[in-house]
Design a protein that fits this description.
There is one protein chain. This protein is of the alpha/beta class. The chain has two domains: 2-236 and 371-504, Alpha/Beta hydrolase fold, catalytic domain (Rossmann fold, 3-Layer(aba) Sandwich), CATH 3.40.50; 237-366, no CATH class. The protein is 36% helix and 18% strand. It is built from 15 helices and 14 strands. The strands form three sheets. Strands 1, 2, 3, 4, 7, 8, 9, 10, 13 and 14 form a ten-stranded mixed beta sheet that branches. Helix 5 (203-219) crosses helix 12 and helix 6 (246-261) runs antiparallel to helix 13.
């Protein structure tokens, strides 16, 4: 599983959160200096969908205790609550987090759901500061209160007392601590009777599948709906494990979408969605059948598959033959635009960057991450310590990789067989949906996302083993954008529309 950890760090959100983190000022102590819960409460207005909203922002920490009533952590969060609401049973609350694992929540916070957002030069490189920062007219604050939370080791969250940060770094440990935070926040703020939603991105979707089941089974708290953004519940669908061909099948439709976007198809179809349906059919049919045959595949069949693969991906037949029909994600991002001396993004393959080594088999950086991370981090820090007035003595960790000894325990008890199996929290989601047949699930995916391919989402959901009536509670939405689809203006509008309709039922 140690090897799986390194693979997953390459593929799960977010390269921006893993490769870049805020450097603490030499004059400020680490956030561990925060030994007791502390909160900054400020009052604001914002224009959302053309209407002016007054709201209260609360940024700080909540104290978590273990089963022995011992303090074990301070858990950081930023909450936005609409002013003037007197009946909590009629006002939903949505808990929001990113992924990593090891990422803070700044990306969804400042890109999609919060009342303020970073403006990027999408899909081109965003210039250095000053960055543009404005009211988020597509915030979901008009339909739900929002709590963005930062898992232990990120934001202001850290272990205290006898506990250590590493005690919280693992699939099951993370599910438990995030669930404890939600329960504590709900209790502290009298929200037990409010409609409740989870909104997680990337590894955050893997977390959500576990949290919704843990809250329901372990804490007696039912969740109304789960919003999965750029989905990965079953790591096997995107880890390209040796001897296992499933990732190649899952990625093929996304390769085709990327080739379509960059005009690398010899006979480019006029309709993207119709084209991707055709590629899905091939991936789940002839392509997967060919891979299943391994070395016993007939040469004539192999030639047919290579010809189709080349037509769908824009890669040469010679390259595909050398790859034995199997091209992984960093090979694809490096090869597609090699002749143009460029590499395409992983999180969002609309982005292009300089190919720094034309002989390299694999891409070694993500142009999207390099383009947007500085703008997000600088804008958030300016906002957090400025508008939200958080104490500057507390160092906000954008990523747990800025803390000492970060390592992740990939064992998940519900996956079975301990270290011998790739973790899958789809089993948790299936359990929660079966026991709470009113639980709704919304999946949001970008066609140009090479971190969590949309076909992998479909495959995972089709293999939860749900009864048909329950399965109908899952809905799918797609965007012509990448992993963080909301950084594109048109997709942000669509993101808001889908999430608001999901929460309001309208």
């Amino acid at each position: 599983m140690r090897k799986l950890f390194h693979i997953a760090c390459i593929i799960i959100l977010s390269a921006s959160t893993i490769c870049v983190h805020a450097q603490p000022s030499p004059n400020l102590p680490d956030s561990a200096a925060l030994t007791k819960p502390d909160k900054s409460v400020t009052h604001h207005t914002a224009k959302i969908d053309g209407k002016l909203f007054s709201y209260t922002a609360t940024a700080g920490t909540i104290l978590l205790k273990n089963e022995k009533d011992e303090a074990v952590a301070l858990f950081g969060f930023t909450a936005y609550t609409k002013d003037g609401e007197t009946d909590a049973s009629k006002r939903p609350v949505t808990f929001v987090y990113n992924g990593g694992p090891g990422s803070s929540s700044i990306w969804l916070h400042m890109g999609a759901v919060g009342p303020r957002r970073v403006v990027l030069n999408d899909p081109d490189v965003t210039p250095p500061p000053p960055y543009k920062f404005e009211d988020n007219t597509y915030s979901i604050l008009d339909v739900t209160d929002i709590v963005t939370l930062d898992p232990i080791g990120t934001g202001l969250s850290h272990a205290i007392g006898k506990a250590k940060n590493k005690d919280f770094w693992g699939i099951d440990q993370d599910i438990k601590s995030v669930s404890q935070f939600i329960k504590q926040y709900v209790t502290d703020n009298d929200r037990w009777n409010s409609p409740k939603y989870l909104l997680g991105e990337s590894y955050g979707t893997m977390r959500s599948a576990g949290v919704v089941d843990y809250l329901q089974e372990g804490m007696g708290m039912e969740i109304n709906g789960v919003i999965l953004v750029s989905v990965v519940l079953d790591l096997r669908t995107l880890t390209f494990q040796k001897g296992d061909d499933i990732s190649y099948v899952m990625y093929l439709p996304t390769y085709a979408a990327v080739a379509y976007y960059h005009n690398k198809l010899a006979n480019k179809p006029s309709n993207l969605e119709a084209f991707l349906k055709e590629v899905r059919d091939f991936a789940g049919g002839q392509y997967s059948s060919a891979l299943l045959k391994g070395d016993h595949i007939d040469p004539a069949e192999k030639e047919q598959v290579v010809t189709k693969l080349s037509a769908y991906t824009g890669l040469s037949k010679d390259y595909l033959i050398k790859a034995n029909l199997r091209v992984n994600e960093p090979q694809f991002t490096q090869e597609l635009l090699r002749n143009e001396h460029q590499t395409v993004g992983r999180l969002d393959s609309r982005y292009k960057g300089v190919n720094q080594n034309l002989l390299s088999e694999y891409s070694d950086y993500d142009p999207q991450s390099s383009s947007i991370s500085p703008a997000y981090i600088a804008s958030f820090m300016n906002y957090y310590y400025g508008e939200l007035k958080v104490n500057k003595n507390y160092n906000y960790h954008v990523s747990a990789y800025s803390t000492e000894g970060f390592d992740w325990d990939w064992k998940h008890n519900k996956s079975g067989f301990g270290d011998a199996v790739t973790p899958n929290t789809g089993t948790d989601l299936a359990d929660a949906m079966s026991k709470n047949p009113n639980l709704k699930v919304l999946t949001l995916n970008g066609y140009y996302d090479l971190a969590t391919p949309f076909y992998g989402t479909e495959y995972t959901m089709e293999h939860l083993g749900l009864e048909k009536k329950i399965k109908d509670n899952i809905s799918y939405r797609y965007f012509e954008a990448g992993h963080m689809m909301y950084i594109q203006a048109a997709s942000l509008a669509g993101f808001k529309k889908e999430v608001a309709a999901f929460i309001t039922g309208k």
